[in-house]
Amino acid sequence: MWLEWLVAWSWSLDGLRDCIATGIQSVRDCDSTAVVTVACLLVMFVWYCYHVGREQPRPHVSVNSLLQGVDANGLQNGSMYCQSPECARCMHQDGLNQKLYHNLQEYAKRYSWSGMGRIHKAIREQGRYLSSQPSIQKPEVFFLPDLPTTPYFSRDAQKHDVELLERNFQAILCEFETLYKAFSNCSLPQGWRVNSTPSGEWFTFDFVNQGVCVPRNCRKCPRTYRLLGSLRTCIGNNVFGNACISVLSPGTVITEHYGPTNIRIRCHLGLKTPSGCELVVGGEPQCWAEGRCLLFDDSFLHTAFHEGSAEDGPRVVFMVDLWHPNVAAAERQALDFIFAPGR
Questions:
Q1: CATH among 4.10.91.10, 1.10.260.40, 3.40.605.10, 2.60.120.330 for 152-328
Q2: Any stretches that span the bilayer, and where are they (predicted)?
Q3: Cβ atoms of 172 and 225 closer than 8 Å
Q4: % helix, strand, coil for the chain, step of 5
Q5: Global confidence as pTM
Q6: How does pLDDT run across 310-333, given as a tens digit for each residue?
Q7: What does the alpha-carbon distance between residue 259 and residue 226 come to, in Å, rounded to a whole number?
Q8: What is the tens place of the pLDDT at every residue in 59-109?
Q9: Is the dihedral of CA 37, 39, 44, 49 positive or negative?
């Protein structure tokens, strides 16, 4: 056995020596031009690797990679809070427009200007659009012109995702009920966020908050998280994208307010919908129904309230932001780049 191994090892060394000798002879046979060309290509490759290695990674990351990694910085009680003076939602409009135009140019240089006409027009004339909007619809951050305007949308606007959400109603409800049991043990369980209201209590359990995944919360509701990944029009990697469970206790009124943009449709899947609860968008009231989706444009002035009794229990919806159906695929890709979290 040892003899066979030594013979094989000797044969391997001979083969290696022959290979090296053949390579050296091949280089000698080549002309000087070929050698110089290969050397230049090698130097360029090494320089490229060095240059790429020095670049700092962008903070724009996918929902999946966040879930698989450690909890994101800036999370308090499982929720994302704005900590940057350059946040797209908080910046002064003049500075924001300059930043958005720079992001658009960067996107177009990397990819293409094709299909960017409406976004280019929107950014260049954003101040005029926002100031001239009627009081019933005033998006606070970004207005994309020439989109159909209506407070509510039919279920067919995003039919695939609506039907998928409704088919999974029981799974989402089951995971919510498991979460909600923790409220009997403490005032505010980990992962829940309290929102300001003039009366009552409004809690949210975020899965995606302003385009950033909340990994700890997603792990607590794995079926709901997987469902988000199956939606075709969910806004995920964009500061305008959110997904959460929203809970209104009896006696709660949400102050009338405008959403940040008209490029999305806000979808509410009713989980628990007692009587005395209403959503009012653009002056038009609607009621939720358990197991059914309600689609609306939250850039319209809107409010919600729960006037039921304590015996009725909370109003609970699963909320997710979907793309407006008239925003083209090329525009969605560009807007994801321009409004990427942390950009």
A1: 2.60.120.330
A2: none
A3: no
A4: 45, 20, 35
A5: 0.74
A6: 999 999 999 999 999 999 999 999
A7: 26
A8: 333 333 323 333 333 333 333 344 444 455 554 555 688 899 999 999 999
A9: positive
